[in-house]
Recover the amino acids of this structure.
């Protein structure tokens, strides 16, 4: 889940409330540290924290894109380097193998006939609740 820049409903509500409280008295002091000045300072601190957060998120998105772009360029150059070794020395050379290429010579696909027979037997015999598999001959 990517991070998103955000707003603050609490900050919006507090700013409206501050304006309303100032309409009562610019220097309202309700005691116990509940003053217009203290409230305004906390609103400003919240705004700064939110702005800082959104700047960091924005920079993070930019950084993620930069890393992705450089990784793509690196992957492309890695492939080109390997192809350059293949062109110069051949795909069946020691140099190609050292560079991370794999020789086409010993590559054979092995199939497991037992697995194919078991799968077809299970399909043709229906469910296999008894866990006994009997080969089906075609």
């Amino acid at each position: 889940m990517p991070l998103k820049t955000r707003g603050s409903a609490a900050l919006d509500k507090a700013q409206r409330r501050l304006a309303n409280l100032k309409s009562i008295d610019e220097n309202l002091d309700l005691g116990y540290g509940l003053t217009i000045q203290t409230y305004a300072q906390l609103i400003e601190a919240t705004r700064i924290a939110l702005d800082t957060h959104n700047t960091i998120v924005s920079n993070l998105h930019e950084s993620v894109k930069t890393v992705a772009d450089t990784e793509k360029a690196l992957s492309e150059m890695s492939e080109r380097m390997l192809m350059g070794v293949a062109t110069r020395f051949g795909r069946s050379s020691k140099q190609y193998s050292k560079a991370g290429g794999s020789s086409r010579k010993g590559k054979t696909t092995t199939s497991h006939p037992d697995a194919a027979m078991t799968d077809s037997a299970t399909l043709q015999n229906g469910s296999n609740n008894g866990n006994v598999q009997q080969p089906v001959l075609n």
Observations:
- The mean pLDDT is 84.
- Residues 16 and 69 are 44 Å apart (CA to CA).
- Residues 36-89 form the longest helix (54 residues).
